[in-house]
Design goal:
Number of helices: 23
CATH architecture of the largest domain: 3-Layer(aba) Sandwich
Mean pLDDT: 88
Distance between the termini: 20 Å
Radius of gyration: 31 Å
Structural class: alpha/beta
CATH topology of the largest domain: Rossmann fold
Helix content: 25-40%
CATH superfamily of the largest domain: P-loop containing nucleotide triphosphate hydrolases
Bound molecules: adenosine-5'-diphosphate, magnesium ion
Number of domains: 5
Strand order of the largest sheet: 11-12-10-13-14-9-15
Largest sheet: 7 strands, parallel
Strand content: 15-25%
Number of strands: 21
Length: about 700
C-alpha cells in the first residue's frame, strides 16, 4: 500500500486547472507514460534551461538580442489594416529615454486593448531586437501591471517540450504541482546529507522549478544532484531487495560431481579456450555457494558463450536439477539448440526447445516431460515464461542478450523454481557503471580470447555508387562456392525513408542476376520459413542470403565468409559489430563490405572508421560510448541512462557508487525497512516507481 502522505503527489495531472484531455495526451507523450501522468511525474520533469528576466534597463540601454523587462507607458495602437491580417499589430510604448514597438502577429485587437490600454503603465518582458532603428519586442512573453510585477519571476524555467504543448501551460501545471508538494520524511541518511551537502527534497524541487539563480538548474548542482541521488538510491535499493531474495535455503547446492560436464568436454571437436575454462569454473563454484548466482558472461560474438552455458546446465543436471536457456528471438533459440543438441546427446543430457512454434501435442509432450523431470535443459524464447510451463526442479536460468528482456521477464523465469541461479549472456560489453545501475552487484566473467584458428576479417567501406562492382564481386565469390550475407536495414515500407534499400527489392534484383542461388530472410517471415531459409543457406543450397538484421544475433554459419551491408551508415556501431560477427567464424578468411550512401555525416564516418579498424568488441564498445553516450550501448534511443529520468551517467557517476553503498548499508541495518527510516524509504521507492520491489521486503 502506498503511504498516504504521497497521495497529493499521485493525483492525476488532469486534476490541475488548465490540464484537459488535450494536454493529457501531450503530457503522456512528453513524459513517456501509458496513463495520465501524476503530479510527481510533472515535478520530476526538470528544466533544460532558464530565461533571465532580471535585467530591467531603460529603453535606451536595452541590449538587442537579450531578454529584458521594460517599464513603459503605452502611447498608441496601430492595428493591422482591415483585410491585411499579415501586417502586424503594433503597440507603441515609451519611457523617458526612448520608444519601443510591441509587435503582435495575428493578434486579437480586443485582447491587446485589454492588456495594453493606452495611457497605462506596464511592465513588458521578452527578447528585444532592433527594427528600422527602433527597439522592438515581438510577442512579449509577459505583460503585467504594477500589481502583477510582484509575481513576475526573475528567472523562469524552460522545459523540454513536445509539439503542440505550450511552454506556458506546462509551466503553469508544474507550478501548481509544486504548490501541492506535501512535506515528506527525509529518506537520505543524515550522514549522506552532510557528506554530499544535499538540500532537502522540497528545497531541491522549488529551486529547480522556480529558480532563484541561473545555476540552480544545472545537473551537477546540488538541487539536481539531490534528485539524481534519490533516483539512484531507489534503483539500487530495489536491486538490493531483489538480491536479498537470492540466498538459497541451507544445504541446497546446484552443481554435481562433474561427470556430465566431462562428457560434454569429451564430445567437443575442439579444446576450450582458457577463458571459457575459467568462466565454467567460476560458474561451477557459484553453483556450490549458499548464495544464489547472479553472473554476467560477456563475450564478443563468436567467443563461444553457448558451450559455457551448456557446461553450466550440465553441472546442474549432475545434481538432478533442471536448467532453462531463454533467448530473445526464435532464430537465436534454434541456433543454441543446434549447437547444444549433438553435444548433449553424446553426454546423455536431455534437451528440448520450446518457442511459439511448438504447439498442440508436441508442446504438451514437452511440458509433460519437463514437469516429470525428464528434461535437463529447455531452450526457448519468451514461450518459456508462459504460465503453464512448469519445471520439476528448475535450478538455473540462463538468459541470453539480457538487456532485451526486462526485469519482469527475468523474475518470471526465476520464479519457476526455488533459489534459481541466474546466468546472463551478453555479447555487448557493458561498462561497469551500467552493470551496477541495472543489475546491482553482479559477478562478471569475460571471454576475451577468440577460439583458435579464427581468421581475421577484411573490412572495407565502399560508396553505394559502386554497387555494380560489389555485385560483380559477389558473383565471383558465388562461382567460387562461397556463402554471402547481404544485409539490408528494413523490410517493406515499415519506415518511410525512401532511399533505404528494402530487403525484398534487393532480393528480387539479385535473383534476376543469380537465380535461385539467392535466399531471403526477414523479421516478418514465419518461424518455419525463416528456419528453412537459414537451413538452405547453411547447407549451401543458397549462396547469397539477403537478410535484415534478424541475423544480427547469434546466427552461426561458419562457412559464410562474405558480408555486404547496405546503408551501413545507418547502423549503430554495436549493431555493425554484431552483424559482422556472423562471418569470420570458420577457418577461411572473410571479407565485410560496408556500402554507404554519400555524403557521409561526421558521426557515420567516425563509426565506419572504427568498425574498419578493429574487430575487438570491447574496443568497439568503448568507442561507441565515446561517440554516443551510454544509453545507446544498451541499444536504446535516448541518451542518458535508460529507465532513469534524472540521473545521468556522465554527471552523476560518483553518486551511483554512493547510492549502492547506502543501499547495501540499509540492507544490513534495516532489511525489512521498518521504523521511520523504513517508511521514508518506502516513499522513495514509490516516488521513483521502484515499488515492484516492495512485496519482496522481508519475504523468503
Ligand atoms: P557466441 O554465442 O559467444 O557468439 P557461440 O557460442 O555461438 O558464440 O560460438 C561460436 C562458434 O564457435 C560455434 O560454432 C562454436 O561451436 C565455436 N566454438 C566455441 N568454442 C570454441 C573453441 N574453444 N574452439 C573452437 N571453436 C569454438
Ligand atoms: Mg551466441
Amino acid at each position: 500500500m502506498r503511504p498516504t502522505v504521497l497521495n497529493p503527489l499521485f493525483a492525476l495531472a488532469t486534476s490541475l486547472s488548465g490540464v484537459g484531455p488535450k494536454q493529457d495526451k501531450l503530457l503522456r507523450y512528453l513524459l513517456d507514460k501509458g496513463d495520465t501522468p501524476r503530479l510527481v511525474d510533472l515535478l520530476l520533469h526538470l528544466p533544460s534551461n532558464v530565461i533571465d528576466r532580471r535585467a530591467r534597463p531603460k529603453i535606451r540601454d536595452a541590449v538587442p538580442g537579450t531578454v529584458a523587462t521594460l517599464e513603459v507607458t503605452v502611447d498608441r495602437h496601430r492595428p493591422s489594416p482591415p483585410g491585411r491580417a499579415r501586417v502586424p499589430y503594433v503597440v507603441y510604448a515609451s519611457d523617458d529615454t526612448g520608444d519601443v514597438m510591441l509587435t503582435y502577429f495575428r493578434a486579437k485587437a480586443d485582447y491587446i486593448d485589454k492588456i495594453l490600454p493606452v495611457g497605462a503603465k506596464r511592465y513588458v518582458s521578452g527578447t528585444v531586437q532592433m527594427f528600422d532603428g527602433t527597439l522592438q519586442m515581438v510577442h512579449p512573453d509577459r505583460v503585467v501591471d504594477e500589481a502583477g510585477l510582484a509575481n513576475l519571476p526573475g528567472i523562469e524555467p524552460v522545459y523540454p517540450l513536445t509539439e503542440g504543448l505550450a511552454l506556458g501551460s506546462l509551466r503553469r501545471a508544474v507550478a501548481q504541482a509544486l504548490q501541492k508538494l506535501p512535506a515528506l520524511p527525509e529518506w537520505i541518511s543524515p550522514e549522506v546529507m552532510r557528506r554530499c551537502q544535499f538540500p532537502p527534497l522540497g528545497e531541491a524541487l522549488h529551486r529547480l522549478h522556480a529558480p532563484l539563480e541561473l545555476t540552480d538548474i544545472l545537473p551537477n548542482g546540488p538541487y539536481w544532484s539531490r534528485l539524481a541521488y534519490d533516483e539512484l538510491l531507489a534503483g539500487q535499493l530495489a536491486l538490493a531487495l531483489v538480491r536479498a531474495q537470492l540466498r538459497r535455503p541451507a544445504g541446497v547446492r546446484h552443481a554435481g560431481d562433474g561427470h556430465l560436464r566431462n562428457k560434454v568436454i569429451d564430445a567437443l571437436p575442439y579444446a576450450l579456450t582458457s577463458s571459457q575454462r575459467e568462466a565454467a569454473a567460476a560458474i561451477a563454484n557459484d553453483l556450490q555457494q549458499p548464495v544464489r548466482m547472479l553472473r554476467l558472461l560477456q563475450g564478443d560474438v563468436g567467443s563461444g558463450k553457448t558451450v559455457v552455458a551448456l557446461l553450466a546446465a550440465a553441472a546442474v543436471a549432475e545434481a538432478g536439477k533442471q536448467a532453462a536457456l531463454m533467448a530473445p528471438t526464435e532464430i537465436l533459440a534454434r541456433q543454441h539448440i543446434k549447437t547444444i543438441a549433438p553435444l548433449a546427446e553424446r553426454a546423455g543430457l536431455r534437451v528440448a526447445i520450446l518457442t511459439g512454434r511448438e504447439k498442440g501435442k508436441e508442446r504438451r509432450d514437452i511440458l509433460a516431460r519437463l514437469a516429470a523431470g525428464e528434461l535437463d535443459l529447455l531452450v526457448g524464447t519468451h514461450a518459456l515464461i508462459q504460465d503453464d510451463v512448469a519445471f520439476k526442479a528448475l535450478a538455473l536460468a540462463i538468459v541470453d542478450e539480457q538487456h532485451r528482456f526486462g526485469v519482469r521477464e527475468r523474475l518470471a523465469l526465476t520464479s519457476k523454481g526455488d533459489a534459481v541461479d541466474v546466468l546472463v549472456l551478453s555479447a555487448t560489453p557493458i561498462p561497469r557503471t551500467l552493470v551496477l545501475t541495472y543489475f546491482g552487484d553482479m559477478d562478471i566473467s569475460e571471454l576475451r580470447e577468440k577460439p583458435a584458428g579464427r581468421q581475421p576479417i577484411d573490412t572495407r567501406t565502399v560508396p553505394d555508387s559502386r554497387i555494380g562492382e560489389v555485385i560483380d564481386a559477389v558473383g565471383r565469390a558465388v562461382n567460387a562456392g562461397k556463402l554471402v550475407y547481404w544485409i539490408c536495414p528494413l523490410v517493406e515500407e515499415s519506415e518511410a525513408i525512401d532511399h533505404l534499400t528494402d530487403a525484398t527489392k534487393r532480393f528480387e534484383s539479385l535473383r534476376e542476376r543469380f537465380g535461385d542461388k539467392v535466399g531471403l530472410v526477414h523479421g516478418q517471415m514465419k518461424g518455419a520459413e525463416k528456419d528453412r531459409a537459414m537451413a538452405q543457406f547453411a547447407a549451401g543450397e543458397v549462396s547469397v542470403l539477403v537478410a535484415t538484421t534478424v541475423v544480427e544475433v547469434g546466427v552461426d554459419v561458419p562457412a559464410a565468409t562474405i558480408m555486404v551491408i547496405e546503408n551501413a551508415e545507418r547502423f549503430g556501431l554495436a549493431q555493425l559489430h554484431q552483424l559482422r560477427g556472423r562471418i569470420g567464424r570458420g577457418s577461411e578468411s572473410s571479407t565485410c563490405l560496408l556500402l554507404y550512401r554519400e555524403p557521409l555525416g561526421e558521426m557515420s564516418a567516425a563509426r565506419l572508421r572504427v568498425i574498419r579498424e578493429t574487430t575487438d568488441g570491447f574496443r568497439i564498445a568503448e568507442e561507441d560510448l565515446k561517440l554516443r553516450g551510454e544509453g545507446d550501448v544498451l541499444g536504446t534511443r535516448q541518451s542518458g541512462m535508460p529507465g532513469y529520468r534524472i540521473a545521468r551517467s556522465e554527471v552523476h557517476a560518483q553518486l551511483i557508487a554512493q547510492a549502492r553503498d547506502e543501499a547495501l548499508k540499509i540492507m544490513r541495518d534495516n532489511p525489512k525497512l521498518t521504523g521511520a527510516q523504513g517508511d521514508a524509504l518506502r516513499c522513495l521507492l514509490y516516488l521513483y516507481e521502484r515499488d515492484e520491489a516492495i512485496p519482496l521486503i522481508g519475504a523468503g
